[in-house]
Design brief:
MarR family transcriptional regulator, HTH_MarR-typ, MarR/SlyA-like, two-stranded antiparallel sheet, 7 helices, mainly alpha, 65% helix, Arc Repressor Mutant, subunit A, 167 residues, WH-like_DNA-bd_sf, single chain
């Protein structure tokens, strides 16, 4: 597979700096050591895949494994393995799909909801410590702009998904 040619349109210096900052924060937050510290502080012994699955499920109704895989952008087999691990640890259960008797949905247990709450609380506390020198106004501005950026990224990605390969 060949690398696509660079765009003929040059990016603004601001967009280049935003991309660099996002790469840095993604790297920092996805490091294995960072994840292990967060899980230890939260008292939740989950790997990154399990924690990501629980966090995504906490924000949605129970869903089929395929729906969860699509939401996470991973293969269904990856979700199946992670769900099996989370079932064994008591964080999720399979429940009948009310729309299709043959299908099942994955649902958080009380232990799963508690784990997500502890992970989020620990993450927020750490972020609060890191941003302690920021004013409330700066934090509000950052949150507003960050949500706006994510919404625009999601809209852009949806538009890319809607295009046919011939476009």
């Amino acid at each position: 597979m060949s690398t696509p040619p660079p765009s003929d349109v040059s990016a603004s210096p601001e967009v280049i700096e935003i991309e660099r900052a996002l790469y840095r924060i993604t790297y920092l937050t996805s490091r294995a050591r960072q994840h292990e510290r967060l899980m230890a502080a939260a008292g939740v012994p989950l790997d990154r895949a399990g924690a990501a699955l629980l966090r995504n499920m906490a924000d949605a109704e129970p869903m089929r494994p395929g729906e969860l895989a699509a939401r996470l952008g991973v293969e269904a087999s990856h979700v199946t393995r992670t769900v099996q691990h989370l079932e064994r640890s008591g964080h999720v259960v399979r429940v009948p799909d009310p729309d299709d008797r043959r299908a099942q949905r994955i649902e958080l247990t009380d232990a799963g909801r508690d784990a997500v709450a502890r992970i989020r609380e620990t993450g927020v506390r750490s972020m609060q410590d890191a941003l302690a020198g920021w004013s409330a106004e700066d934090l509000h501005t950052l949150a507003t702009l960050f949500h706006r950026m994510v919404d625009d990224f999601l809209a852009h990605a949806a538009g890319m998904d809607d295009r046919s390969p011939a476009d």
